[in-house]
Amino acid sequence: MALRLLPLLLLLAAALLIAQGQGIGSSASDCCLKNSKNAIPSRSVKSYRLQGPESGCVLRAVVFTTKRNKKICASPTNPTVQKLMQNLDNKVKNDKKDKKKKHSPRSGGRPKEQKTQQV
């Protein structure tokens, strides 16, 4: 009796492994299924990420995140989308430069005098 069940159990185990490998039963990716045709409000966008086959998604897209945490999918070949991505990249770069300027040590001049205590 046990020998009859063994091939069935092996077949079931193989089917489960194949299903896991194909993503069936695992957590679904957060992928865009289509790109928006509407204009993207550049003032309300705070970041973006790229999606495609390398991230487990079928559609290549740029996923913009708004300041209200809404997702907007757009075509990466659209010139307006590329310009918005470039603007966001420049903004991040400038923000990093500003932080470095604020935290840089004193430059030039003589060092700050330290108070001495008299005993």
- Total strand count, please? 3
CATH class label of the domain at 30-96: Mainly Beta
The secondary-structure class comes to alpha+beta
Biggest sheet layout: 3 strands, antiparallel
- Average of per-residue pLDDT values: 79
Strand order of the biggest β-sheet = 1-2-3
Shape descriptor reads flat
Helix tally? Answer: 2
Helix and strand element order: HEEEH
Indicate the radius of gyration in whole angstroms.
27 Å
Please tell me the CATH architecture of the domain at 30-96 by its name.
Beta Barrel
The percentage of residues in β strands lies in 5-15%
Low-confidence stretches: 19-27
CATH fold annotation of the domain at 30-96: OB fold (Dihydrolipoamide Acetyltransferase, E2P)
The end-to-end span amounts to 96 Å
What is the percent of helical residues? Answer: 25-40%
Written overview of the protein:
This protein is an alpha+beta fold and 119 residues long. It has a domain at 30-96: Beta Barrel (OB fold (Dihydrolipoamide Acetyltransferase, E2P)), CATH 2.40.50.40. Helix content is 37%, strand content 14%. It is built from two helices and three strands, in the order αβββα. Strands 1-2-3 form a three-stranded antiparallel beta sheet, with helices on one face. A hairpin with a 4-residue loop joins strand 2 (61-66) and strand 3 (71-74). The longest helix is centred in the C-terminal third of the chain and has 24 residues, at 79-102. The N and C termini lie far apart (96 Å).
